[in-house]
Amino acid sequence: MKLILRHLKNYKALLLLNIASVLGFVIVELSIPTITAMMIDVGIRNSDKAYTITWGWILIAIAIFGGLSSLLLNYCSVKIATNVTRDIRNSLFSKVQSMSHADFQSFGVSSLITRTTSDPWQLQLFVQMLLRVAFLAPLMIVSSITLILKTSVELSMIMFYSIPVIIIAVALVAYFSGPISKKQQKLLDRLNQIIRENITGVRVIRAFRKDEYENERFEEINKGYKKFSSMLFRLMSLAEPVFFFFLNCILILIAWVAAQMIGQGTLEVGQLVAFTEYQFHAMFSVMLFASVFVMYPRAAVSASRIQEVLDVVPSIKNPAVTTSPIKEEVSVEFDNVSFSYPDGEENILKHLSFKANKGETVAFIGSTGSGKSTLAKLIVRFYDVTEGQILVNGVDVRDHDLQELRQSIGFVPQKANLFSGTIDYNIRFGKENATEEEVIRSSKIAEASSFIQAKPNKYEDIVSEGGLNLSGGQKQRLSISRAVIRDANIFVFDDSFSALDYKTDAMVRANLKNEMSDSIVLVVAQRISSIMNADKIIVLNEGKMVGMGTHGELMKTCTIYQEIAHSQLSEGELSQYGKN
After folding, report:
1. CB of 394 within 8 A of CB of 370?
2. Rounded CA gap, 476 and 447, in Å?
3. CA nearest to 354, candidates 562, 544, 560
C-alpha cells in the first residue's frame, strides 16, 4: 500500500510512540498470566500470604501500566489514521482542483465525490487496524508461543495444529471480499450520481411528474448496494463467531489433556491458567493479524480508486517556462483554431481565425451546437485547442502562466453558479480583497443593486446552495457582478444575459460599455438584441465562421445572420439598426 506508507512517513514521532505503546501492552498482557501462575503455584499452594500480597500489588501496578499503554496505543493509532486520511483527502481535493474539464468527464463528478469521501474512510479504518494489529500481533504471537513452549510442549502441539485452519479460513474470506468491495463502491458511485441529479434537477423531475420513476431508479440501485453490502458484512461478521467457537473447542481439548497431566503431576494448576492465557493471546493475535488481510482487499480497492485520481496528469497545466506578465495593452487572436472534445469524433470548431484588440467588443452568434460556448471555454483554457493557436498579446495561451492568464479574464459562464454564503461573499469571489465601494459599484454595473437593496440584510443576505433562493435573472446579475469586480483586461460573457428581460439586458450592456472601454469584451449570445452594438460580430455555423462584421454589414452580406435576425426581431426593430 504505497499510498498509505507515503503518508505514514510524515508522522514518524507518533509511529515510534505507537510502537512503544505496543511493546508496553504486550509485556503487560503476558506478564499478568505469568504472575498469576506464580501466585497460584507458590503463594496460594504454600499458603504464603506475604508472597501473594506482594505479587498482588505488583500485578495491580502492571495492570495500571497496561491500561495506560492501551490508551496511548488507541490515541496514536486514531491520531495517525485520521491525520493520514485528512492528508489523502487534501491531496485528492488539490488534484481535483488542478484537473481540466476533460479530466472531470473521464471520472464523473459523482465518482470523484465518492473517491474523496467514502474511499478515504475505508483507508482510515484499515490504517487504524494496521497500526494496532500489524505491530502488536506478530510480537504477541512470537512472545506467546515462546511462553507456551516453555510452559508445556505437549499442550502446545494442540494449538499448533489449529493455527493453519485459522489462516486458511481467513484467506478464503479475504479472497471473496475483494470483488464484493469493488462492486459495492461502484454502486455507491451510482447512488451518488442519482442523488446529485435529483437534487439539482428536482424542478424538472416534479414538472414532468417523474417522482415515481426516479424513486424506482434509486431503489433499484440501492437494492443492489444493499445486496453487496449485506454479503460483505455477513462475510466479515462470520469470522469472529467461527473463531471463538473453534477456540472454545481447542480449550475443551486442552482442559481434557491438562486434567490428565495435573493428575499425573506433570503440570501445575497455575501453569494451566497461564498456558490458557498464552494460548488465547497467541490464537487471537493470529486471527487479528489475519483480519488485516481480510480488510486489505477493501482498502486496496479504495486505495487504487484514489491513486487513479492522484495519478492523473492534468491535460491543462502550466508550461515549464512562462512568458512575461499580461499587460494592459492586450489583444486576443484565434489563429486557425480547430477543436474537438477528447471523446468527440469530429471538430466542434474548424479553422477559426479572428482578432480582438483593446477596447473592442466582439460577439459570437449562431445556431445551437455551432461552437459558441466551446470557443469561450478555450479562451480561459478549460480545454486546449486541437489545432492552431489562441494568442494573448501575441503569445500562445499555453505559454502563459495559467493562474495569471485566468486572473486577467473576467469570465461569466453560461450557467450562473453561486455558492452558499452571503451576497457579498459571492461578489467578492471575483476579488477577495475588494473594498465595499467596489462591491457596490460592480453590483450597480450588473443592475443587481436594486434587488440586493430590497433584501432584508442587503449584501449580507444569505444565498442558499446553488442560489436556489434567487431567480435566474438575479443569479446572472450576481455572476456578472462577480466578473466585473475583477477589473480584468479581458471579459468573456458566455450567453450570460439570457435570463434577463430586454430592459435589464439593455441597461446592463450600456453599463458594461461605459465601464469596459479599455478592455476586450467577448460576448456569446443567442439574442441579436444583445450584440447589435458590438464592434465585430462573428457568425458561426457548424463550427465554421460564416460571417464577420457589424450588425449592418452582416444584414447585407450574411444569409444565416439575416435568418437569425428575422426570426427574433420585427422589421421595425431591425430598421432602427439598419444604418449601423
Report:
1. no
2. 10
3. 544
Give the pTM.
0.69
Q: How far is CA 67 from CA 25, 26, 29, 60, 99, in A?
A: 8, 11, 10, 11, 48
Average pLDDT over residues 183-188: 78
CB 480 within 8 A of CB 446: yes
Q: Which residues of 126-150 are buried (b: 16+ CB within 10 A; e: fewer)?
A: bbbbbbbbebbbebbbebbbebbee
Q: Residue 105: left if φ>0, alpha if ψ -120 to 50, beta else—which one?
A: alpha
The single-letter DSSP state of residue 545 is E
Superfamily of structural domain 2-310: ABC transporter type 1, transmembrane domain (1.20.1560.10)
H-helix segments, 311-351:
none
**pLDDT tens figures, 187-226:** 877 887 787 777 667 767 777 777 788 888 888 888 888 8
- Quick one: three-class SS letters along 219-286? HHHHHHHHHHHHHHHHHHHHHHHHHHHHHHHHHHHHHHHHHHHHHHCCCCHHHHHHHHHHHHHHHHHH
Mean of pLDDT values over 512-537? 83
Largest CA distance in the chain: 122
Measured distance CA(39)–CA(185) in Å, rounded: 54
Q: How far is CA 199 from its chain centroid?
A: 19
Pairwise CA distance, residues 306 & 308, whole Å? 5
Q: Average model confidence (pLDDT) for the chain?
A: 81
Helix (H, G, I), strand (E, B) or coil at 383: coil
CB 144 within 8 A of CB 284: no
User: Measuring CA to CA, how many Å separate 156 from each of 27, 38, 107, 279, 286?
Assistant: 21, 20, 54, 8, 15
Q: How far apart are CA 114 and CA 188, in angstroms?
A: 7
- Name residue 29's amino acid: E
Query: Helices (DSSP H) in 387-471: which residue ranges?
Result: 402-407, 423-428, 436-445, 449-453
